[in-house]
Write a structure and sequence with these properties.
4-stranded mixed beta sheet; Mss4-like_sf; globular; binds zinc ion; 3-stranded antiparallel beta sheet; mainly beta; Metal Binding Protein, Guanine Nucleotide Exchange Factor, Chain A
């Protein structure tokens, strides 16, 4: 109550979360909490990051700081995503997604943070582009003879139920 208000320039949250690429050359931090966190199911991101989908933590650039590795960062303009993607030029880890329509905002892979970012990834975008081989949390069972390997049940071929007749007569 008696503490004087901090000047605007010193405004910085008390908690930071640090992230780094696989080889550790690139390190960065954000102020906690991040603004939001979301799952990106777009085909452009799937290809660029070679994963079924990517979970991003989004924050204002003024709450983000690159701590090390500027020289190692490789940038690529992705015309499909209308965004700049960054990667570590040494180990290849995807780093940042900066969408052109949000120039003051930066998205960072949730997987690169070892500590909490203050936001649960509860939002899904571009679900219409989701790969049909993405595991969506359905039940798994052990694969007989292969300890540690779990398998999914076969997927239903179609979302629409078969017509009544097809239960008794094979369709062409
Ligand atoms: Zn690296």
């Amino acid at each position: 109550m008696t503490k004087p208000a901090k000047p605007e320039s010193e405004k910085r949250s008390a908690v930071q979360s640090e992230g780094r690429c696989a080889c550790g050359v690139v390190r960065f931090e954000i102020d906690v909490p991040a603004t939001w966190a979301w799952h990106d199911h777009s085909s452009a991101t799937r290809r660029a990051n070679t994963a079924a989908y990517m979970t991003w933590v989004g924050t204002w650039k003024r709450r983000f700081r690159l701590l090390d590795g500027e020289a190692a960062i490789v940038r690529w303009e992705d015309p499909e995503a209308k965004a700049t993607r960054s990667f570590c030029g040494r180990c290849g880890t995807p780093l940042f997604l900066e969408r052109h329509r949000s120039p003051k905002f930066i998205n960072l892979p949730r997987a690169l943070f070892a500590t909490r970012t203050g936001r649960e990834p509860r939002y899904h975008m571009y679900l219409d582009q989701q790969a049909d081989w993405t595991w969506t949390g359905g039940p798994l069972s052990p694969l007989k003879g292969y300890p540690g390997v779990m398998q999914e049940r076969p997927r239903k071929k179609r979302a629409t139920p078969p017509s009544k007749d097809s239960l008794f007569e094979p369709e062409d």
